[in-house]
Structure formats: C-alpha cells, structure tokens
Write a structure and sequence with these properties.
The protein has 689 residues and is an alpha+beta fold. The protein has 20 helices and ten strands. Strands 2-3-6-7-5-8-4 form a seven-stranded mixed beta barrel. Helix 6 runs antiparallel to helix 18. The two termini are 41 Å apart.
C-alpha cells in the first residue's frame, strides 16, 4: 500500500520541482488539443452544414479547410511534443539516475514515468477539450465573418470530435512514454546520473554535408526564382521546399561548423573575450544546436510564408473579383466567325442582337440597366520557343518554354477597359507578358509539323498590367491589335493550324443593374427559366455556348475560398508561432544550465561580471538571430514562387504581395525581438544564479 502511494507522490513531486519545464509543456499541449478539437467540431457542426440558401459552397469550404488544418496541426503537434519530451528527459537524467542508485529498479521508474504521463494528460488533454468547448463559438464567429457567410445559431458540442482528439493525443503521449521507457531501459544508472553534464566533442568539418547543403539550397533557390507560371509552381513547389529544408539542416549542421572554425582561425575576431566564449561555446555544442536552430528557422519561414501568402490572397480578392466579374451581370458567348464543316443553317453571330436580348430581359423584369460594356477576344494555346517567338505546334521539341495562353483584343476594347488610347497603326501591337520588340507566331499544324507561315507584329508598347484578364493557370500573353479585321485574320490563321481543335471567338457583355443582391439572384433564376424556351435567343445568329454569372455570386465564392485560407493561415500560424516561442524558451533554459558551470569557472579564474555578461549577450545574439536571418533569406527567394501560386487564384498584384510579405516579416521580427528579450532574461538568471 505504501509503495502504491509512493509512486504518485514521487511523480507529483518531480513535476512540482520541474514546474519551470512542465508548465509551458502542459500549456502548449492544452493549446494544441483545443485547436484540433475546434477544427474537428467545425467540420461536424450541423449549424455550419445547414447553411442558408445561396451559400452552396459554404459547408464545403469549412470542411475542407478544417480537415486540412487538423492534419497539419496534429503532425506538427507530434513533432513538437516529441521535441519537448526529449528536452525534459535530458534535464531529468540526473534525477532518474539518483532514483536508480537509491534502490529503485527500472520497473519502478517506469511506473513513476507512467503516472507522470497520466498527470500531464489530465490537464493537457482534458483542459484542452474544455478550452476548445469555450472558444469554439468565438472561432466559429470569426471564421464565418471571414468567409462572408451567415453565422449558425446555437451552441454545439461534438462528442465525436472530443473522442477523436483525445484518442489521438493519448496515442501521442503513449508514444512519448514508450520512448522514455526505452531510454531508461538501455541506460546504466551512472550514465543517467551524469547524462545532463556530458559535453559535446568538437565536431569535425563534414565536407560532404557542407557541399550537400550548398547544392540543396542553391537548387531550391534556383527553382524558386526561375518559376514562371502557377502550374510550374504547383509542380515544383514541394521539391523546392524539400531541398531548402535539407539545405537548412545541412547549413546549420555542417556549414555553420565550417564558418565557426573559420572565425576561430581569424585571430583578430576570435581573441576577444565575448567572441572567444561565444564561438567556442557554439562550436562545441553545435550538434545539438544545429537541429534546434534549423527547426526554429523552418518554423519562422513557415509562419511568414503562410501568413503573407494568405493575407495577400484575401486582400487581393477584391481586385480578382472585379477583373473576373466587371459587371453585376456578366454574359459570355463563344462563337465561330465562319461555319464549321458539316454545320447547317449557320448564321453569323450578331453581338448587337444578343445584347438587346439580354438587356431587354432585365428591363422586362422591372430593373434598370445603368451601364453596359462589351468586349470581344480570341484566345488559344501556343508553344513558347523564346520570349517573343511562339508556335502553334504546342508540344514540339522546339517549344521548350512551355505552353502559354495567347489572348488578342482590339484597341477599342483596351481603351474601354483602361481609358488609354494607343493609336496603333495597321500591323502594330501592344503586348503584355512579352519581352523584346517583336511578337512572332509561327503557324504550324499542331502535331503534324506542317509549316503554314508566320505572323510578326512590331510591339510599340509593353503593358505592365494585363488588360484582358483571363482565368488561366498557364503563362499569359495578351496582345492588343488595331481592329476586328486583325483579330479575324488571326482567328483564320489559328483555325488553319488547329483544324480539329480551333478556338472560338468570345463575346462578353457586362451589365450594371440597379438591383440588390437578392433581387439579382432571383433575376438569374428567372433567366434560367426563360432560356428553357428555345425562342429566347431568336435573331442572335449561331453560337456555341452562352452563360450568365453574377458578381455577387463570384464574390461570395472568392471570399469563401480566400477567407478560409486566411483563417487557416492565422490559426496554424498562431500554433507555429507559439511552438517557435516555446522551442526558443526551452533552448535558452537548456543552454543556460549547460553554460552556468562554465561561466562560474571563468569568473573564478579572473573574468569580471561585466565581461561574463557581455560574452553571454554575444553568444545569445549569435544563436538567437541566426535562424531569423536565414528565414528572411528563404522568404526573399520564395517570393517569386508564392507570387506565381497566387496567380492560380487570379491574384496578379505584385505590389500588394510584396507589401503583405514585408508587413508580415516586420511584425514577426518585432514579435521575435520580444521573445528574445523575455527568454534572454531567463537565460541570464540561470547563468548568473
């Protein structure tokens, strides 16, 4: 009976004596559990599922983003918990070794560790679920506000979410317990007793790993800066990220040792009190420092990329919606200017008649059309040989630059969109997405290789912004030509080059209507009913497809997507930032205890207290700010790839993306500096105690 009560007392006493380590650990565990429960509950909340009509994608967005968030958050939580558990076991080796020497067998120590795990699980997992229950409604309000969707009423408790969350974290804590029991099993008492004071040997310069780090980082950076399209970014992003992660670990593990030894060889730098202590201290502990510093660097990069990218997406959505939906009602019609083979009863498409039908329908329903704009364009894919030279044989070996989407509009359309007059002469062009003074298209029969000639256009103006926004995921090239005759000629040439797959012409009408959002949705329903009558489009000629779309509908979907990404970015960013802070905190404590005896010896041999403090300050600065400096370099090289990924969501505002990146980095630097001030004080107290 006495033994059964002894083990819980020892476990509680151990946690109480090491509360400086365990309290942050339990709080971090609590926060992770609460976050994952909230995301799990949002997936299952019937109030979210039963959205009001008009928001068909609402539940889908919430479910997709929360499922993604759960997976990422739990994987990260597992890494984080295992990392902190390793630190705790290292600090407690002397204590466990003392238990063993005083007569406790390894089985008894295993019982104590098991009870400690249970004690940690109760406030960590139980408290996390209670916290999740409390904050679930608040998070739901914030999420639905970002998505621009109505907030579900009522308070929801997800029992399945509780069970899933508790089960996963119990499994995670079980894994940490098994890891700890195995460490105790394979260790001898004397090793445990002196385990916390075992120093590191001077690491050797590993040339292979140094070279691997340089090559990996260089390759990853090269991929990032040479990515030209959103499709390329999707294909290569994870390869680039993997290479940079490998390079980062090699950088801190091997390249850092190379640099520190180079600093040691520099007598003018090394033989100063603060530099001598800092460089030698980092060099002899670089094996354990390297992984921690690399982890912090990668976390910092993840937080900044995630927050800046999702913020750019959310803030750029308004421009994307305006470009995709210029009018309250947007009509698009595809047609061919000549009859295709085998087509009977063909009549030329009449844009004026189509516009009259659409505006007449709106006005017949009792609404006033305030403004009307129309445009016409031609688009087709082409293979890029070099900038300025393209071929209609898209997958020819010569087209090594990939497939681009070429769009042609008239100068009148360009002026209507931008208000700018170009005064193009016949045969001239203005272009977006083309370098050089001439645009050349080689008309070649697709896959057959038969040459049909070429067309060249002198480029009199290079456009900095795409005047004909086209939702494509490939590289975009937009060409402004003088008139309809030029576009018709280009259509005829591409139809000859693509005999079995020629592109149609597109006509667009953008109508601004004096009506509320609900009235426009009702009007769209009536339009669907009206076109069921085959006589609705009489007199408009022959065309291929026709569609109606509302700006309000597109805006809802766009903000639902962007808001979901921003919420997920903020949610996971907060978790990652919290983990970064705790990792830094534990690292400072660990190094403080390791450095305490060294600095006591240095003071005994004549080093003044001021010199000790300066050397401590120098070492902390070296260790602490190295990860954020490297993370900033990663962000700089990653910017181009993030920008290209954003084009998949129709965000083309480079200035906005740059401002969001700089703002996020600035805020993160301030937060990082605050963490430095707080953790440095802890380090000083330990070392100077």
């Amino acid at each position: 009976m006495r033994n059964s009560s002894l083990y819980p007392r020892l476990a509680m006493q151990s946690i109480r004596n090491n509360r400086r380590f365990y309290i942050p650990y339990i709080l971090a565990l609590l926060g992770d559990v609460a976050a994952i429960y909230i995301m799990s509950a949002l997936c299952r909340d019937p109030g979210v599922k039963n959205m009001t009509p008009g928001r068909p994608n609402g539940y889908m967005y919430v479910q997709i983003f929360m499922n993604i968030g759960q997976v990422i958050a739990f994987l990260f939580s597992a890494i984080f918990v295992l990392y902190i558990n390793g630190f705790l076991m290292k600090q407690r080796k002397k204590e466990l070794g003392l238990y063993n020497i005083l007569g406790m067998g390894k089985g008894h120590i295993a019982v104590v560790l098991t009870i400690e795990t249970v004690i940690i699980a109760v406030p960590g997992i139980g408290g996390g679920i209670v916290t999740g229950l409390i904050f679930h409604k608040l998070v739901s309000l914030i999420l639905h506000q970002m998505l621009g969707m109505p907030v579900p009423l009522g308070f929801y408790i997800s029992w399945n979410g509780m069970a899933w969350t508790a089960g996963m974290f119990l499994l995670l804590l079980g894994v940490t317990l098994l890891v700890n029991l195995n460490k105790v099993r394979v260790s001898r008492p004397i090793e445990l007793l002196h385990g916390g004071s075992v120093g590191e040997r001077e690491p050797r310069t590993r040339w292979f790993m140094t070279l691997l780090g340089i090559v990996s980082l260089g390759w990853g950076y090269y991929i990032a800066v040479t990515t030209r399209t959103g499709v390329d970014a999707i294909v290569t992003y994870f390869l680039a990220v993997g290479l940079v992660i490998i390079g980062t670990y090699c950088l801190f593990t091997a390249v850092s040792i190379f640099v520190l030894k180079a600093l040691r060889r520099n007598r003018g730098f090394y033989y100063r009190t603060s530099h001598f202590i800092g460089v030698s201290g980092m060099l002899y502990r670089m094996k354990q420092n390297a992984v921690g510093l690399a982890n912090i660097c990668i976390l910092c990069t993840m937080v900044m990329v995630m927050l800046s990218g999702t913020l750019s997406l959310y803030l750029g959505t308004a421009d994307a919606v305006n470009e995709q939906y210029p009018g309250d009602i947007n009509v698009s019609v595809s047609y061919f200017p000549v009859p295709l083979a085998g087509e009977e009863n063909w009549e030329p498409f009449d844009p004026d008649a189509m516009l009259a039908v659409q505006t007449g329908f709106v006005e017949d329903q009792g609404y006033r059309v305030e403004n009307v704009r129309t445009s016409c364009r031609l688009g087709f894919g082409a293979g890029k040989i070099v900038d300025g030279v393209y071929t209609t044989d898209r997958f020819n070996d010569a087209a090594k630059g990939g497939v681009v989407m070429m769009t042609f509009i008239t100068e009148d359309n360009y002026t209507a969109v931008t208000g700018e007059t170009l005064d193009l002469a016949p045969g001239e062009a203005a272009a977006y997405g083309v370098r050089g003074d001439t645009l050349t298209i080689r008309w070649t029969v697709d896959t057959a290789g038969t040459e049909l000639g070429e067309s060249s256009f002198p480029i009199v103006k290079h456009l900095s912004r795409n005047p004909a926004f086209d939702p494509q995921i490939t590289e975009l090239v937009t060409v402004v030509v003088p008139d309809d005759a030029a576009i018709n000629d280009i259509w005829a040439r591409q139809a000859e080059a693509y005999p079995d797959d020629c592109s149609s012409m597109w006509w667009y009408a953008y109508l601004d209507v004096d009506a509320a959002e609900e009235e426009l949705e009702e009007l769209q329903t009536r339009h669907y009913d009206a076109i069921a009558d085959g006589s609705f489009y009489e007199g408009t000629g022959s065309w291929k497809t026709s569609s109606w779309s509302l700006r309000s509908e597109g805006e809802t979907n766009a903000y639902g997507l962007a808001g979901g990404f921003l919420f997920l970015g903020l949610f996971l960013g907060f978790i990652f930032l919290l983990a970064t802070v705790l990792m830094i905190y534990y690292k400072q404590i660990s190094e403080g205890y390791e450095d305490k005896d060294r600095f006591e010896i240095m003071q005994k041999v004549g080093l003044s207290r001021g010199e000790v403090r300066r050397s401590i300050h120098s070492q902390i600065l070296m260790v602490f700010f190295l990860p954020i400096v490297v993370a900033s370099v990663h962000i700089l090289f990653d910017f181009n790839m993030v920008e290209k990924l954003l084009t998949l969501f129709y965000i083309h505002n480079t200035t906005l993306t740059a401002l969001c990146t700089l703002s996020t980095a600035a805020v993160f630097f301030v937060a990082y500096g605050v963490v430095y001030l707080l953790t440095a004080r802890t380090y000083y107290r330990i070392v100077e105690r």
